[in-house]
Specification:
Mean pLDDT: 92
Structural class: alpha+beta
Strand content: 25-35%
Strand order of the largest sheet: 5-6-7-2-8-9
Number of strands: 9
Order of helices and strands: EEHHHEEEEEHEEH
Oligomer: single chain
Length: 190
């Protein structure tokens, strides 16, 4: 079990779970993100501007998802990792502290390491947001992540929104889930 998950700030909330009620908002934001990427892509491969992901009006708070229930469901699938850091590259040096970094020493994060985790952002006793990352093509890791998605979906019907892969779909949509996990497996097995 990892004691710390330390990610680069660019991965912060790029892959999210939303309650099903947020689907229309999430779809509109995904379309806007894709259009912004096309519009702002430079010939050099970089971007002239970036899209800021919009927060939907519907959150897991509105769905009544209790933090204790979500934590118990995820902990049945993945171990809790309390230390979660997000920094720029300089922050990965133990001798440096990133002034803009996030150093959460009592996080609601569940995972196998930086390659696969699910992070809950609470608001009081409820869950406000859930986000995750996957950078593994290992079949067992992908199965574990799918179990984590199903655990949350059993408490509150949910959709996956992946801005890196420009993919979105319901956790219960078997065709989408197969495509999503196959895409992850192909991308991260290379």
């Amino acid at each position: 079990m990892p004691e710390l998950i330390h990610i680069h700030e660019d991965n912060w909330e790029m892959r999210r779970l939303y309650p099903l009620a947020a689907r229309a908002e999430a779809e509109a934001d995904m379309r806007a993100a894709i259009a912004a990427a096309e519009r702002n892509r430079l010939p050099s491969g970089g971007y002239s501007d970036m899209h800021i992901i919009g927060a939907p009006d519907h959150t897991y708070v509105d769905a009544g998802l209790r933090l204790a229930d979500a934590a118990a469901a995820l902990e049945a699938v993945m171990p809790r990792v309390r230390r979660f850091h997000s920094t720029a590259m300089a922050g990965f040096d133990p001798a440096c502290r990133d002034a803009m970094g996030s150093y959460n020493e009592d996080a609601w994060c569940f995972g196998l390491g930086t390659h696969c985790y699910v992070k809950i952002e609470p608001r009081g006793d409820l869950v406000e947001r859930i986000w995750f990352d996957i950078e593994s093509g290992d079949q067992d890791v992908l199965i574990t992540l799918r179990k984590a998605f199903r655990a949350i979906d059993a408490l509150s019907p949910s959709i996956i929104t992946d801005y890196f892969l420009e993919m979105m779909g319901a956790v219960t949509d078997h065709g989408f889930m197969a495509d999503y996990l196959t895409t992850c497996r192909a991308l991260y097995s290379a």
